[in-house]
Design a protein that fits this description.
The protein is α+β, with helices and mostly antiparallel strands and 83 residues long. It has one domain. The chain contains 1 helix and 4 strands. Strands 3-2-1-4 form a 4-stranded antiparallel beta sheet, covered by helices on one side. 11% of the residues are buried.
Amino acid sequence: MKQFSIMDGDMFFQRLEPNEKYVLAGRAIQTDLHSYSEYTPVFGHDPKWFDSRTATAYLAGLVEHLRWDGDRYHAYALICKEE
């Protein structure tokens, strides 16, 4: 199975954390309740590996985050490994 890691420079994407724009959920079961602008990406030095669906969703989230709070030009690297 292939796994993927997302790099920004020499740092690896780890997770998303809620930021000051995060709105607490009023209901437990809803779809598309939160926007990626409510989260801040966290990067670290150790690679974190994701399956293809998770990596795809995180990449979409990182692009959305750049749309709200990012630079004009930005490059992410996608690394693939076979397990």
